[in-house]
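Title: Comparing notes on inverse folding

I've been comparing how different people in this forum approach sequence design from structure. To keep things fair, I'm posting one structure and asking everyone to reply with a full sequence. Here's the target:
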């Protein structure tokens, strides 16, 4: 099957047909050891649907709190209470001001999952600020970001419908990784054991809520945490299904697992680069028109391979803050990513946290802000980000 299907995919690059999960798995199994035809087909699909543009988002990473009610076995972001449980609003303000002066466009607010449900210190701190939950505090930080002319994007785990509605009033988009749809990965000794919020059923329910609320949503899969190829392909099919139903998935992150010291999974191997790139390519072939992203700091040696596997986005890159979730992997310099991208023959553009096609789903205040600094294609105008990204 792989021969004729791939031939058709490579040849018919004007309107690539999406692969379903069964065909993707068959293709994966039959192409083991020789994935080049899959990459070529994925590249052709990307070129047909994305017009030679590879984008990124210039962001500041605001780590609102590292406390979390969950415990994932690969996570070093989560900490135990020590000092201030949340970043005080004055520090958030100073970070946003500094970021704006360095050309950042996106204010990425990241928080552990509802820490107020596990730690009294967190609940009391929020109460002193006059808010009831972490998402409510993030909404306040987001208002501040807008005052600084920045576009908020929130990753704070599973939000309730009320919290989602609140955050959506000030955020350009939200992020929630599916990671994997397999219940097996939550069993004993598996990575999602001890992390009830990572239950696939729960994550899918939250992603559905985001769809019903019409919030541009970024999600994705984590590759190499012990899943089978079939499980990762099925996870991509779940994401595709959500998007077909609600039309709100603006981007799929395909992220490679990297083991971290001091975690239960420190001895686990990182995702194999060839397997990872093949999953990227399958994501493209299953969702030809989707925005597919792979984080450049987690694959510093693999830019050409990821481009040839069909990505069209590098995700958020910060000129001012580290990746607090993966602090051992420094962000690349934006000019270096640009050089690699342009040398591979692509146009390099800065996007808002929301992709151009989804801008009309943003709150009106953000649409007005974007109109003042976007180019005719809906990307950020060069003057806004280039100077600060040197
Ligand atoms: S939910 Fe997120 S922050 Fe919390 S332990 Fe898991 S990976 Fe870490």
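Reply #1:
Here's my take.
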């Amino acid at each position: 099957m792989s021969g004729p299907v791939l031939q058709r995919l490579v040849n018919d690059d004007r309107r690539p047909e999406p692969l379903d999960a069964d065909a993707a798995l068959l293709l994966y199994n039959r192409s083991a050891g020789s994935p080049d035809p899959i990459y070529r087909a994925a590249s052709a699909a990307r070129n047909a649907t994305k017009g030679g543009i590879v984008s990124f988002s210039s962001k500041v990473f605001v780590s609102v709190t590292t406390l979390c009610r969950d415990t994932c076995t690969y996570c070093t972001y989560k900490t135990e209470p020590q000092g201030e449980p949340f970043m005080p609003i004055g520090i958030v303000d100073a970070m946003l001001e500094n970021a704006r002066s360095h050309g950042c466009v996106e204010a990425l607010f990241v928080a552990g999952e509802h820490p107020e449900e596990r730690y009294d210190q967190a609940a009391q701190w929020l109460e002193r600020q006059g808010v009831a939950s972490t998402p409510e505090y993030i909404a306040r930080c987001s208002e501040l970001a807008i005052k600084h002319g920045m576009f908020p994007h929130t990753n704070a785990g599973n939000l309730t419908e009320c919290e989602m509605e609140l955050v959506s009033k000030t955020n350009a988009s939200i992020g929630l990784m599916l990671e994997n749809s397999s219940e097996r990965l939550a069993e004993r000794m598996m990575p999602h054991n001890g992390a009830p919020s990572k239950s696939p059923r729960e994550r899918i329910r939250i992603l559905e809520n985001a769809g019903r609320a019409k919030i541009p949503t970024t999600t994705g899969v984590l590759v190499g945490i012990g899943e089978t190829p079939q499980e990762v392909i099925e996870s991509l099919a779940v994401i595709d299904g959500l998007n077909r139903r609600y039309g709100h998935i603006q981007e799929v992150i395909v992220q490679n697992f990297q083991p971290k010291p001091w975690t239960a999974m420190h001895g686990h191997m990182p995702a194999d680069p060839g397997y990872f790139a093949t999953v990227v390519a399958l994501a493209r072939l299953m969702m030809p028109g989707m925005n597919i992203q792979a984080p450049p700091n987690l694959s510093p040696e693999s830019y050409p391979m990821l481009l040839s596997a069909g990505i069209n986005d590098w995700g958020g890159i910060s000129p001012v803050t580290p990746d607090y979730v993966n602090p051992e992997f420094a962000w690349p310099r934006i000019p270096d990513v640009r050089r690699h991208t342009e040398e591979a023959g692509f146009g390099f553009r800065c996007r808002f946290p929301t992709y151009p096609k989804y801008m009309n789903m943003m709150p009106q205040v953000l649409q007005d802000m974007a109109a003042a600094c976007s180019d005719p294609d809906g990307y950020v105008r060069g003057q806004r980000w280039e100077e600060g990204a040197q």
